[in-house]
Amino acid sequence: MKTILKTQPSITQKFSLLPVLGVVAVGVIIAFTAFYLSIPKPSVAGSSYQYPDMSFNNPVLISGTAGQVNAVYKFSTVSSGIDAHVKIVSFYNGASVSTIDNLTGGYYDAWQPFINSPGNCTSWINWKITFKVAGTNTDTVLTRLAATAIDVDGDGGSLREIVGAHKVSTYSAMAGAQVTVTFRNDSCVATSSTNNVANIDTNRTQAMFMKIFNNVSSINYRTGAVNGSGGVQIRQNSIYFKYFDMMPSPLPVELVSFKAIKIDQNQVQVKWSTASEKTMIFLQSKDHKMELILWKC
Predict the structure, then answer these.
(1) How far apart are CA 267 and CA 34, in angstroms?
(2) Are 268 and 236 part of one and the same domain?
(3) Strand partners, 292
(4) 194-225: buried (b, 16+ CB within 10 Å) or exposed (e) per residue?
(5) Are residues 20 and 77 both part of a single domain?
(6) Contact 127, 220 (CB under 8 A)
(7) 48-75 in b/e burial notation, b at 16+ Cβ within 10 A?
(8) How many domains does the chain have?
(9) Cα(276)–Cα(264) distance, rounded to whole angstroms?
(10) What is the rounded distance in angstroms from the CA atom of residue 146 to the CA atom of residue 264?
């Protein structure tokens, strides 16, 4: 193990062009992989990269009609000094709210809406979750936020659950997870297989899907199902606003950018910057070649 020297936030180096082109291409691919998939571990308390653990319980209707579009529910003190307002934005294809937060199973601190999913169609509910300074109507910005969907599964027959969100920075699912993920711009949606996973249990990581948000005061969330059966099914969703360490991190660094610019026939300029580093990733020049080296503490 070698001593690790922390890189500067933004670094520029020049390298010989011909030996480096292949590695630059690999570096760019890795950079984009890191940008979309890398989830840094939570750092020490007080760090701007710390993920808050939130507790959603005892919702109170503060606006609109219960269970209808534009209804707003207040979850008080989800974290120290923070309230959350959950708004029903829209229903698609006949989806409706059965219970805004059901506690018959799962986790008390998770937000667990029951959703009515009509048969023979794809349906969902769009939600908006806004974070407020506790006891006020003033929005507050969260530097980092993790929202982990638990028990994203099917009914063992012809139903598949859907969870999605906008304003997503990164996402993570375990290798072998029973979800199919699409990620475009800042919109991220996961659809389960039809396999049923027993119970709402954070030990059953094959049915978990985590999304990371940066610098947000509100997020848009979606819960629904692809229901191939002939009748309405009630599906319990469980969204835990908590970071889970068992989720994989493809790289020990979160890259903001990685660019390679041709200067002339013999030189290429490589620029990169990082948002966070848990263990080390850096580029070094050795014998006129560029090497990508991963150091692990």
Answers:
(1) 26
(2) no
(3) 283
(4) beebeebbbebbbbbbbbbbbebebbbbbbbb
(5) no
(6) yes
(7) ebebbebbbbebeeeeeeeeeeebbbbb
(8) 2
(9) 32
(10) 44
Identity at 221, one-letter amino acid code: Y
CB atoms within 10 A of CB 5: 8
Provide the β-strand partners of residue 87: 72, 128
Name the amino acid, one letter, at 193. Answer: S
Q: 285: buried, middle or exposed (CB in 10 Å: 19+, 13-18, 0-12)?
A: middle
Looking at residue 277, its pLDDT comes to: 60
Same domain, 227 and 81: yes
Tens digits of residue pLDDT in 82-125: 999 999 999 999 999 999 999 888 999 999 999 999 999 999 99
Can you tell me which residue has the tokens 């011909």? 18
Handedness of CA 73, 190, 241, 184 (dihedral sign): negative
Could you report the per-residue pLDDT of 145-174, keeping only the tens digit for each? 999 999 999 999 999 999 999 999 988 887
pLDDT digit string, tens, across residues 219-235: 999 999 999 998 999 99
